[in-house]
Amino acid sequence: MAIRLLPETTANRIAAGEVVERPAAVVKELVENALDAGARMVRVALEQGGIGRVLVEDDGIGMAPEDLALAVERHATSKLPEEAMLFAIGTLGFRGEALPSIGAVARLSITSRPRAGEAHRITVEGGRKSAVAPASGAPGTRVEVNDLFFATPARRKFLRTPRSEGEAAIEALRRLALAWPEVGFEATLDGRTQLQCAPSTREGRIRDLLGEEFTAAALPVTGGAAGVLEISGLAGGPAFTRATAMEQHLVVNRRPVRDPLLRAALRVAYREVMAPGRHPVAAIFLELPASEVDVNVHPMKTELRFRDANGVRGALISALRRALGHGVGQVVGAGGPRLGYAGPARLGFAPPPALPITHSGGFPEAPAPQSGFREAPLPLGFSAPAPLAPPQAPVSADHPNDFPLGRALAQVLETYILAEAPDGALILVDQHAAHERLTHERLSAEIQAGGVRAQPLLIPAVVELPEAARLAEAAPELAKLGLELEGFGPGAVIVRALPALLGAPDPSPLLRDLAEELAESGEGVALALRLDAAIARLACHGSIRAGRRLTPPEMDALLRAMERTPRAATCSHGRPTYLRLGAAEFARLFGRS
């Protein structure tokens, strides 16, 4: 078959398919142009989900007649004055493809007026351009797109319903609005207002778009490296979850993205405090030099390539885990998680000191209170409560209000602790899940203090596994975790010591988990953070199990330890450690509400 050049019209329509796949892409491209033009107010109107009509108006700098004529030509742009800027792009758009691509598959009309000039209009229908003509209009630019894909009816058949397409277009606008809080946005769909945001601050825009409930419960996230990367924003605590990742908003240099590397960082950071199948809500902003990120790797510019990908990923995981570590567990009731997870910076509390736990038969014993000193308890819904001094004996019935989780009443099914809270609510604690979190936090505290105390094995254990070489390379760092091992031929390691806090678990599954964590977290993440999820598994093996009968002093000691431990409302795998049944829950259960 002979090779031939495609006709220009056909080539343009093929190229348009990479940029304009649905009405949401049209909205995104046109609004990005408006923002690059310095708009301070953007108005969008959609009809039939944007399939019938998309109108975008802005009050930006506008275009002169000669620029308007060039704007609909392929690869014509004002945003790359020289080729070198391609490697340090500071604008949302830069390829010069959006307008000609839209004009190749729809009926496009552009009216633009510079702030010190007259208005002019140009139209493009299925790739056929008109001459620029005088028109009337306010300063700025008005772009109208009608009959999307009329010139390529086969592509139009693949669009979803107008309702679905309209929702996707509004969502694309919401993400841009979050990234540009100083710009006002208005949007209507078939005449009904869908979005209305006045110019605001970043926190105000987050409140407008994600809701007051989220901002009240969110944790402040900060991190990065001076002069190289700045990370800021808000992230929901473990109580604030969604069934999908749709409410994860990631913004890099004012550009909303759905970058796989950044989304994976969120998964790793939340893995130990969130139940499987749930997703956190977050609004995270990253700022770094334009030369450190390549935005020209995806047709829709929603994925990026970082010069130091491991460093960016590690910094984001670290920032999120610091925020999560400074919060306190949410209160969980019969109807699901309740809000009450907030960062210490927002409430004025400092992170609590490490919980001192000693072992007696594998169970934590609460230390005696300091002489003449007693710290006042705070409600569980507050961040990082002041440490409570657990009693040496069960809580006395004469002082039921001394402790947020109250006093233990009984053990149920040799698995759950039943307690009465000061307000009369019943607390049901999963003893294994709760002790797992306590052990996890103790291990983490020992690492931060310089290393976990190791217990030498009477007989060193040889463990065979494919990832043995990776573990052997990390042996010096693993020693800080209380794991002393070394390579033992191809595909095996010899284990000489395990964390003393865990007793004597089988080392084989623990080492496999560690190897998986080292591989999944990747390079560039501090080892203590990379191993945090593995510590969760270690804690699981070193905690009391279901079926262990506890004495009243042991049950009360566990409750007291929970009250002074960060993240105590979830176990190391994200499951709740306790449920709270109050008056309202009982009323619903008995049909009184």
Architecture overview:
With 593 residues, this protein is α+β, with helices and mostly antiparallel strands. The chain folds into three domains: 8-200, Heat Shock Protein 90 (2-Layer Sandwich), CATH 3.30.565.10; 203-325, Ribosomal Protein S5, domain 2 (2-Layer Sandwich), CATH 3.30.230.10; 347-449 and 507-593, formyl-coa transferase, domain 3. It has 19 helices and 29 strands. Strands 1, 2, 3, 4, 5, 6, 7, 8 and 9 form a nine-stranded mixed β-sheet that branches. It has a five-stranded mixed β-sheet with strand order 10-11-16-13-14. A four-stranded antiparallel β-sheet has the order 23-24-25-29. α12 crosses α18 (552-563). It starts with 7 loop residues before the first helix and ends with a helix. Mean pLDDT is 78; it is low at 327-400.
Short summary:
The protein has 593 residues and is of the alpha+beta class. It has 19 helices and 29 strands.
| β-strand amount | 15-25%
**What is the number of helical segments per DSSP (H or I, 4+ residues)?**
19
Domain unit count: 3
Query: Mind telling me the C-alpha Rg?
Result: 29 Å
Instruction: Describe the global form.
Output: elongated
Major β-sheet profile: 9 strands, mixed
Going by CATH, what is the homologous superfamily of the largest domain? Histidine kinase-like ATPase, C-terminal domain
pLDDT average, as an integer? 78
- Tell me the name of the CATH class of the largest domain: Alpha Beta
Share in helix? 25-40%
Q: Between the first and last Cα atoms, what is the distance in angstroms?
A: 77 Å
CATH topology of the largest domain: Heat Shock Protein 90
Strand tally is 29
Question: Pairing-aware structural class of the strands and helices?
Answer: alpha+beta
Q: Low-confidence spans: pLDDT under 50, at least 5 residues? A: 327-400
Known CATH architecture of the largest domain: 2-Layer Sandwich
